[in-house]
């Protein structure tokens, strides 16, 4: 049974995931996100309810914003995460960028801002 709030958006975002106070870490990929959580493709060995910190990695390999959450589901290829804050600012920004028309995003990327 799904307990997701909001629409699920398919994404492909590299992240550096840490759990257990940073003792256990791995690079993974967020595959989908919603207002309440997301799915992380990873082999990180974390139990249900473990707290996680996800640091987004941009296309140049630089670290970006951090998302906090905990594991609510395990699958053979990854983990389901519920965000610590409902609709974290990072997720809100990703949703907004996905709502823009694709030609607007292309212009912003190419010019470094809006025209």
Describe it.
The protein is α+β, with helices and mostly antiparallel strands and about 120 residues long. It has one domain: Thrombin, subunit H (Beta Barrel). Helix content is about 20%, strand content about 45%. It contains 2 helices and 6 strands, in the order E-E-E-E-E-E-H-H. It has a 6-stranded antiparallel beta barrel with strand order 1-2-3-6-5-4. Strand 4 and strand 5 form a beta hairpin. The longest helix is centred in the C-terminal third of the chain and has 11 residues. The C terminus is likely disordered.
Q: Mind sketching the topology for me?
A:
Blueprint: E1 9-19, E2 24-33, E3 37-41, E4 51-57, E5 63-75, E6 78-83, H1 89-99, H2 102-111
Antiparallel strand pairs: 1-2, 1-4, 2-3, 3-6, 4-5, 5-6
User: End-to-end span in angstroms?
Assistant: 44 Å
Strand order of the largest sheet: 1-2-3-6-5-4
| CATH topology term | Thrombin, subunit H
- Uncertain regions spanning at least 5 consecutive residues: 103-115
Mean pLDDT: 81
Overall SS class: alpha+beta
Helical proportion, percent range:
10-25%
Shape: globular
Could you give a short account of the major beta sheet? 6 strands, antiparallel, barrel
How many independent structural domains? 1
Strand content: over 45%
Order of helices and strands: EEEEEEHH
CATH superfamily: predicted glycosyltransferase like domains
The number of helical segments is 2
Strands, total number = 6
């Amino acid at each position: 049974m799904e307990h997701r709030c909001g629409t699920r958006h398919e994404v492909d975002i590299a992240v550096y995931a840490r759990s257990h106070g940073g003792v256990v870490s791995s690079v993974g990929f967020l595959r989908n996100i919603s207002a309440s959580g997301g799915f992380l493709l990873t082999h990180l060995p974390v139990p249900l309810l473990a707290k996680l910190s996800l640091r987004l990695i941009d296309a140049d390999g630089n670290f970006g914003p951090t998302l906090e959450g905990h594991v609510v589901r395990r699958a053979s290829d990854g983990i389901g995460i519920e965000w610590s804050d409902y609709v974290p600012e990072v997720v809100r920004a990703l949703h907004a960028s996905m709502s823009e028309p694709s030609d607007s995003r292309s212009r912003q990327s190419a010019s470094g801002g809006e025209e």
